[in-house]
Design goal:
Radius of gyration: 35 Å
Strand order of the largest sheet: 1-2
Shape: elongated
Helix content: 40-55%
Order of helices and strands: HEHHEHEHHHEHHHHHHEEH
Number of strands: 6
Number of helices: 14
Distance between the termini: 145 Å
Length: 373
């Protein structure tokens, strides 16, 4: 009986101990579970606020400009990294996921002036349109076919700089060398030829440029124009290599087409005339080169003008002139790379701006008699 009572007592004690242990275990499990839930909640809340913060502007009060360059062929991962590295966004990964969530694509390469106050949607809109989202303080429009001297006058009308200051910069040896080092594939030693009037003639792309500060430096203004030329020409590097044509030759050829162009002009066909003449060892004999040689703008080129002794005069010298005679736009650049396949060697424009082409001199004279006299 004693043994039975003893064993029963022992069993009861073990049950009590197990109950106590069970309570402790349940309490520990409850505390651990609570801690885990609390941690998850903290992480979730922290994550929410982190993402929320990353979706907001870096500094809504910032107005200092940041130049951001998006190279050709950049994907969203590269673009996100570039934006983060430049301090325009807080987190590249969040920006990447945000654009994918909104199904945003077709971002454009180029140079962008951004600020840390821009929202992600403003940045996306800017990258999609290729334009800075903010309203510029002023713009400068450079038309196709103008010379570097004419650009100096245009810039002077919109800024505090004089044409003389502009020309002093773009003809300065140090600045030209700096641009050559910055854009080595665009500006080569060809621009240093002793017969070239202005090394950077033809390298300032005609376009509308937006400015977001009141007094940008002349260096900034000119560099923007050269940078855009670099971006445009880079699109045709493979085709240039196939045609064994240098960038300088392309811009020179395109400038001739730009100056010969009228509203109705078929530039590809004019390009074919020039190529056919070059292949036939005929002088190009294009009037705009004479005017450039004379350094003046005249409504009509006289016969005596054709005799001017100047490297740019294509009546006196065979081949292309030493360099561009104006700044050509994309249409003329593409026409220079994709001339029509013809046998034309002559062309003339009538008083309405319509062009008439001829395969030989006799046919050309008939066109002159019919459309000019």
């Amino acid at each position: 009986m004693v043994d039975k009572e003893s064993k029963k007592q022992e069993m009861m004690e073990k049950i009590q101990i197990r109950k106590k242990e069970g309570k402790v275990v349940r309490r520990v499990v409850a505390m651990v579970s609570l801690a885990v839930l609390l941690l998850i909640a903290i992480v979730g809340v922290s994550g929410y606020f982190y993402v929320k913060s990353a979706l907001e502007p870096v500094d809504s009060e910032a107005d200092s400009e940041i130049l951001v360059e998006i190279p050709m062929g950049s994907g969203i991962s590269t673009i996100s990294s570039i934006l983060e590295e430049n301090g325009v966004i807080k987190n590249g990964q969040i920006f990447k996921y945000y654009t994918k969530f909104k199904n945003e694509t077709n971002f454009q390469a180029g140079n962008y002036t951004m600020t840390q106050s821009m929202t992600l949607d403003e940045i996306i809109e800017s990258l999609k349109t290729g334009k800075v989202y903010r309203e510029p303080l002023f713009t400068i429009t450079v038309p196709e076919g103008v010379t570097i001297e004419q650009i100096s006058e245009i810039v002077a009308k919109h800024t505090e700089y004089t044409p003389e200051q502009f020309m002093e910069l773009v003809t300065g040896k140090e600045f030209v060398q700096n641009m050559m080092a910055t854009y080595p594939e665009l500006i080569t030693d060809e621009v240093l030829d002793k017969n070239i009037r202005y090394a950077l003639e033809g390298y300032l792309y005609p376009s509308t440029y937006s400015f977001y500060e009141e007094n940008p430096s002349l260096e900034e203004i000119v560099t923007m124009m050269i940078s855009l030329t670099n971006d445009v020409v880079a699109q045709y590097n493979d085709l240039l290599a196939q045609k064994e044509m240098t960038t300088h030759q392309l811009l020179t050829f395109a400038s001739l087409l730009e100056e010969e162009a009228t509203a109705q002009t078929d530039r590809e066909t004019i390009a074919s005339v020039f190529f056919n003449r070059l292949e036939s060892d005929m002088p190009l004999q294009t009037d705009p080169t004479v005017l450039y040689a004379l350094g003046s703008h005249k409504a009509r080129v006289l016969y005596k003008d054709l005799e001017v002794e100047n490297p740019y005069n294509t009546y006196k010298n065979q081949g292309l002139p030493p360099g561009p005679i104006a700044n050509a736009g994309k249409i003329s650049i593409e026409a220079a790379l994709n001339p029509t396949d013809t046998e034309y060697l002559y062309f003339l424009a009538d008083s309405d701006g319509n062009n008439h082409f001829a395969k030989d001199y006799d046919e050309h004279l008939k066109n002159v008699e019919k459309y000019i006299k």
